[in-house]
Amino acid sequence: MSDAAFGAAADRVDEDALRDTIRHRVEAAGTSFYWGMRLLPRDRRNAMYAVYTFCREVDDIADGEEPAAEKLAALAVWREEIDAIYCGFPRHLVSRALLGPTRRYGLRRDDFLSVIAGMEMDAREDIQIPDLATLDLYCARVASAVGHLSVHIFGDQSDAAHAVADALGRALQLTNILRDLDEDATRKRLYLPRELLDRHGIGGSQPAAILRHPALPAVCRDLAAIAEDHFRDASRAMTRCSRRAMRPAAVMAATYRATLSALRQTEWRDPAARISLSKPLKVWLVLRHGLL
Asked: What are the backbone angles phi and psi of residue 128, rounded to the nearest 5°?
């Protein structure tokens, strides 16, 4: 074997090992997105795994116990690493895994940077009772930006696909917020917007106290209605997209919409109660929205 052929073979082995490492991370995480990602061809699936793992990396920084200055410094390193991807010389394992997909699917630098900016919002201070505009910006950064990266990988870069990313990202993130109220409160975070709390006569700023307020279900119902509006906008935009390419997005939408429905049935009587969909329901949603 020539030196060039040997080098190419070694590169392939290194790339395969890198993809396996990323795949194992995703599978171990048990993410709700896993079923949707499984619908993709191998190269696109590996690309989504890399994007998901990047999101986990920066999210773990924002959720860590370190002082704010250290978190922001770590996220600044990730900004440098994103630049390194576009210069062709990434160093981190995850950014190395993103190099190929970024080139292959035209992933946009600004979308990666938006995700980091969203994590910086969490890292800078514990978000408590933002106004609706700030909450929307947060959702756009931590969720819709991921959607913009995703639709490129799915294979539809149309304006309609990006409209799906905008709306569905917000719907998914608001659903997460309504599902994780108690978990967020343990981190001294509360993403419920001030306008809705004021509307229902909830004052104060302590997350734990607000979660015990008798008017909490009314606030959650109002935020769920906003999420439903985003789900509907995403569904309308989806009709203008490639149905085949956007199957993973359709599965994610169906799964999270079912989660939101389950939350509404609980009426948020116990914010600490965990809501999860059964495996048979998840399989049915994949069949209904991803294969049939």
From this structure: -135, 120
State the burial class of residue 89 (Cβ atoms within 10 Å of its Cβ: 0-12, 13-18, 19+).
exposed
Give mean pLDDT in consecutive 10-residue pieces for the chain, a chain of 292 residues. 34 59 65 71 91 92 95 98 95 92 97 98 95 98 97 97 98 97 95 98 94 97 98 98 94 93 94 83 70 55
Q: What residues does CATH 1.10.600.10 cover in the chain?
A: 1-109, 126-292
CA-to-CA distance for 249 and 23, rounded, in angstroms? Answer: 20
Q: Which of 236, 39, 224, 7 lies closest to 150 in space, CA to CA?
A: 39
Q: State whether CATH 1.10.600.10 applies to domain 126-292.
A: yes
Name the E strands within the chain.
none
Q: What is the pTM of this model?
A: 0.89
C-alpha distances out from residue 70 to 74, 184, 186, 236, Å: 6, 21, 21, 42
Q: In terms of Cα–Cα distance, which of 22, 82, 10 is closest to 46?
A: 22
Taking the C-alpha atoms of residue 36 and residue 44, their distance in angstroms, rounded to an integer, is: 12
DSSP result, 185-197:
HHTT-B-S-HHHH
Q: At residue 190, what are phi and psi to the nearest 5 degrees?
A: -150, 110
DSSP state of 213: S
CATH architecture of 1-109: Orthogonal Bundle (1.10)
Q: Which amino acid is at 230?
A: H
